[in-house]
Design brief:
The complex is a heterodimer of chains A (about 600) and B (about 300).
Chain A lengths: L1 H32 L6 H8 L1 E5 L23 H4 L5 E5 L8 E5 L8 E5 L5 E3 L1 H4 L10 E9 L8 E8 L2 E5 L5 E3 L1 H4 L5 E9 L8 E8 L27 E6 L5 E3 L1 H4 L6 E8 L8 E7 L4 E5 L4 E3 L1 H4 L12 E3 L8 E4 L3 E2 L3 E2 L3 E5 L7 E3 L1 H4 L7 E7 L8 E6 L5 E5 L1 H8 L3 H4 L11 E2 L7 E5 L5 E3 L1 H4 L7 E7 L8 E6 L5 E7 L4 E8 L11 E6 L2 E6 L8 E2 L4 E6 L4 E7 L5 E4 L6 E6 L3
Parallel strand pairs in A: 2-36, 26-27, 33-40
Antiparallel strand pairs in A: 1-32, 2-3, 3-4, 4-5, 6-7, 7-8, 7-10, 8-9, 10-11, 11-12, 12-13, 14-15, 15-16, 16-17, 18-19, 19-22, 20-21, 22-23, 24-25, 25-28, 28-29, 30-31, 31-32, 33-37, 34-35, 34-38, 38-39
Chain B lengths: L13 H4 L2 H7 L8 H17 L5 H23 L6 H13 E2 L4 H16 L1 E2 L2 E2 L3 H12 L5 E2 L8 H17 L3 H22 L3 H5 L6 H9 L10 H20 L5 H24 L17
Antiparallel strand pairs in B: 1-4, 2-3
Helix pairs in contact in B: 3-5, 3-8, 4-5, 4-6, 5-6, 5-7, 6-7, 7-13, 9-12, 12-13
Classes of the chains: A mainly beta (about 600), B mainly alpha (about 300).
């Protein structure tokens, strides 16, 4: 009897201890992984960099306008019109100073091309260049932009991603842009949120991938009916089709997606291309909303989908970003895919797909182990060495719909999202938002890579303190100082320009590549830098993150007093070029050897 | 002498011509304890192979392993015997399906809390909460930063639900508990229309949750758990209505896990009332356990 009583007391104590475990886990994890707020000087001293938001001082006062779609969607307009803010970096006039292009998404609103004045300010030249008035009634609105020199004339051309008529603009030697959509042979309507320039077949000409989100037969301003929502929250296959436009070299493109093995109607939100296997052919990674990610491995002009066999296409989530980063300095890319995490409601967790050391390409999700898993309702993210310490860091923007702070739409969202396809798929069945927020007012994440397998969030400490609904982020050394500055496009919010001040003790090196046998933008070229016994892989991107594109120039942080051994450039043509006698704190312009 | 009564042309009594399945359905003995675990395993495997509902096999196996181990150890300590693993298996597998977390520890912890609650929270010799319901509610209360509950998995199509419903109904019919499910479902649907009327939201959005997968486990395993439901048929129906009613109010308050929380409160309360009524009828002082329950629980 006494024994039983003692056993009962012990089990009760054990039980209470179990109930305390979550509190302890929370207490210790928060204490360890988030850096406290600090001023710029303290941040500079402690983390080696500090960010200062300077958009107004730089002459940029842009505020994004969301689209207003068919009135049938009024009840859930904040949700269906929740994308469109985007930013991409381009040196459109080849003056050696990165410029900025931002999209707007209300019918009749203007996009902006901010020319870099080289003095810390920018001037909007979109009107005079002919790339401002691109959201006219009946043509849809902008969702993003990617730049690539499709005709190899030395100037970056513009592909405008739209819910509506996609547009291709030819860059006329930096003096203006000519709309060449019709000549190019693009389809009349795509509801897309992602596009990527890449040379999939290695012919030296940039091809273009476009990922549909809503089906292409849906005109969001004139709906036939309200059955245009995904038919499942995690297994939807009723989205837009995918396009692969093969560059024929005469200003025309041929759609070859089916022919090359890309066939999907998942709801693509982000895509990026990189040679992930060292085959010389760029592979294509697609992050899908309402479903699994897809990885199309390029077998030399033909793709096969390998999401499951590589491990990235098993658990369905809400993919919204694709970024490549060599986080361990091993010469291989990890892939960051953003998803949704909301405490107590939906913990999808972001994915950091790290390649395993196996002969066959295989990835493991190490987001939790490395501390980059929980980022709220995450959208765009970019890898870049923000403090030039030699390890790539990760900047994530987030926040879905920030309206009434006190009232949340989450309950209504979950009750419908879990329902039958006939319910979820019809917008008329969704309760009205009525001004409520959905994962709004979220703090951004600036995860600093300690080089030892952990990322620590220093956003508040280094000055990334905004809580707008972040969508798209791009990194560029805007003022040629050797520091990666950060530009952020917010949905229904102001454009943000974070100027980065980096501690002088850390060094850097940058490369500006120009292809000759390869595409002239050098998109897809990979550089492996060897220094101080380390190696790091980076590439020239034709679009990555969420609806964004970083500067084509490649930036490496080097840490203190680096000794640079060499840089090896793998050009898309297959040419391998080795550069030696490199000095830190310099920008090298490299032309592909013929 | 009378003629032998055997007449080949005479039909056999109906009970003897029943096929095995019908015999099994109409049998009155206790349900084979392996049937519910097999059923829930089927749900798990079918869901995972068709839609990949699990975070990973390892997490689910961790939940199951922890649950069975805890039951074995605690059963040995308190009852001095190795308990049948069917109940703890269902608890573990329910945790594996219902809980969602990218981390491993919540699965082990939830299973441990679930099983331990059976031994720590006892009244008059019996536990009051459905173990997995208690464990998952505890995790949602205490570890909301790390876990959520399944609510949007296993697709959004009818085919999978119909299969679950057919198999589940047969098993519940055999266990003589299908009325609990039917009463709850009917109550939920009726109250959904009332809720739609009150909130002004589309009625489809109010019905939507019960067309999703989370509810199927709730309907077939949690609210019908023999260990933690009242004995009388009428009482079971009243409890099912009460769960739906409390859920109704929780939903009006935008509680995402309304059904789990409703059962969390109504289930033990109903058992206490039943024990009290039983003790008064039998002239027993205080509350007393109702004898004669034997089945598996989630």
């Amino acid at each position: 009897m006494k024994k039983a009583f003692i056993a009962r007391i012990l089990v009760l104590i054990f039980f209470i201890g179990l109930l305390c475990v979550p509190w302890m886990a929370r207490h210790f994890s928060v204490a360890k992984k988030t850096a406290p707020s600090a001023d710029a000087q303290a941040a500079l001293a402690r983390y080696g960099f500090a960010l200062q938001e300077v958009s107004h001082a730089a002459g940029i006062g842009f505020v994004h306008q969301a689209p207003a779609l068919d009135p049938k969607l009024n009840g859930i307009m904040p949700e269906v019109a929740s994308m469109g803010a985007s930013v991409s970096i381009v040196d459109y006039n080849r003056d050696g100073w990165p410029d900025i292009y931002v999209t707007n998404s209300a019918v009749g609103s203007k996009n902006h091309l901010y020319r870099n004045n080289r003095d810390g300010t920018f001037t909007d030249v979109a009107e005079q260049m002919g790339v401002a008035d691109v959201n006219r009634s009946g043509t849809g609105v902008s969702m993003g932009a990617v730049w690539g020199d499709y005709d190899n004339d030395g100037y970056e051309d513009l592909f405008l991603i739209k819910w509506g008529r996609p547009e291709l603009f030819h860059n006329d030697q930096g003096h203006g842009f000519t709309r060449v959509t019709d000549q190019a042979g693009l389809p009349p309507w795509i509801n897309a949120n992602t596009a990527v320039w890449f040379d999939y077949d290695g012919d030296g000409r940039l091809d273009l991938f476009v990922g549909g989100y809503y089906p292409e037969d849906v005109n969001l301003w004139h709906l036939r009916n309200t059955r245009m929502m995904p038919d499942s929250f995690e297994y939807a296959k009723n989205g837009g089709r995918k396009y692969l436009f093969h560059n024929l070299g005469n200003g025309r493109f041929e759609e070859v997606s089916q022919k090359t093995g890309i066939d999907s109607r998942r709801w693509a939100l982000a895509a990026a291309a990189a040679d992930l296997r060292g085959t010389g052919h760029p592979d294509l990674f697609i992050a899908n909303d309402y479903g699994v990610s897809e990885l199309y491995l390029n077998d030399g002009g033909h793709f096969h989908e390998a999401g499951k066999e590589t491990g990235v296409g098993f658990a369905p989530k809400s993919g919204m970003n694709v970024s490549f980063g060599d986080i361990f300095n091993t010469g291989r890319f990890s892939i960051y895919v953003s998803n949704i995490s909301e405490e107590g409601v939906l913990i999808q967790g972001n994915n950091l797909w790290v390649p395993e050391a196996t002969p066959a390409l295989k990835y493991r999700n190490l987001a939790r182990d490395l501390g980059v898993e929980l980022g709220g309702w995450s959208f765009g993210a970019q890898f870049g060495d923000l403090n030039n310490d030699g390890n790539v860091d990760l900047y994530l923007v987030n926040g879905y719909i920030s309206l009434d702070r006190q009232r949340s739409y989450w309950y209504d969202f979950t009750k419908v999202a879990g329902g039958n396809s006939s319910i979820i798929g019809d917008a008329a069945n969704w309760p009205a938002f009525n001004g409520r927020s959905l994962s709004g007012y979220q703090q951004k994440r600036v995860w600093l890579n300690d080089g030892a397998g952990k990322f620590v969030d220093v956003a508040q400490a280094v000055g990334a303190t905004d809580t707008y609904d972040g969508r798209s982020i791009a990194l560029a050394d805007l003022w040629n100082t050797g520091a990666l500055d950060v530009v952020v496009a917010n949905q229904r919010g102001p454009f943000l320009l974070y100027k980065n001040t980096v501690a002088a003790y850390n060094n850097w090196i940058e490369f500006s590549l120009e292809g000759t046998r390869s595409n002239r933008s050098a998109i897809g070229a990979q550089i492996i830098l060897y220094w101080d016994g380390k190696e790091q892989l980076q590439q020239v991107s034709g679009g990555n993150g969420f609806a964004s594109q970083n500067d084509r120039r490649v930036h490496f942080g080097l840490g203190k007093n680096p000794h640079i051994e060499k840089a090896v450039i793998h050009w898309p043509s297959g040419t391998v070029q080795t550069l030696s006698n490199l000095a830190p704190d310099r920008l090298y312009t490299v032309k592909e050897p013929l | 002498m009378s003629q032998p009564t055997t007449q080949p042309e005479t039909p056999l009594p109906e009970t003897e011509v029943k096929p095995p399945f019908r015999r099994w359905i109409s049998a009155s003995g206790p349900l084979n304890p392996f049937i519910p675990p097999l059923f829930i395993t089927f749900i798990l495997l079918a869901g995972n192979f068709s839609f990949g509902i699990l975070e990973s096999y390892t997490r689910t196996l961790l939940a199951i392993g922890t649950s069975i181990t805890a039951e074995m150890v605690l059963g040995r300590i308190f009852f001095h015997k190795w308990l049948h693993p069917a109940s703890s298996y269902i608890t573990g597998i329910s945790v594996g399906i219902l809980l969602r977390s990218p981390a491993f520890w919540p699965y082990a912890l939830c299973s441990l809390i679930s099983i331990t609650s059976k031994y720590a929270l006892r009244f008059r010799g019996r536990h009051l909460w459905n173990p997995s319901n208690f464990g998952i509610c505890a995790m949602l209360f205490l570890a909301s930063q790390s876990v959520a509950s399944l609510s949007i998995q296993w697709g959004n199509n009818f085919a999978s639900l119909i299969v679950i419903w057919m198999l589940g109904s047969v098993i519940l019919w055999r266990a003589r508990r299908v009325h609990i499910t039917l009463v709850y479902v009917a109550s939920f649907i009726a109250l959904s229309f009332l809720r739609a009327h009150i909130t002004g939201d589309p009625w489809q959005s109010e019905i939507a949750p019960i067309t999703g997968p989370m509810y199927q486990l709730f309907i077939f395993f949690m609210i019908t758990d023999p260990r933690t439901t009242v004995r009388s048929r009428a009482g079971q129906c009243i409890v099912a209505v009460a769960v739906a009613l409390l859920e109704f109010f929780l939903r009006l308050d935008s509680s995402i896990y309304a059904p789990l929380y409703a059962l969390f409160w109504v289930g033990p309360f109903a058992l206490l009332i039943e024990m009290w009524i039983h003790s008064r009828r039998n002239g027993i002082t205080g509350l007393e356990e109702i004898p004669g329950r034997k089945a598996v629980s989630a």
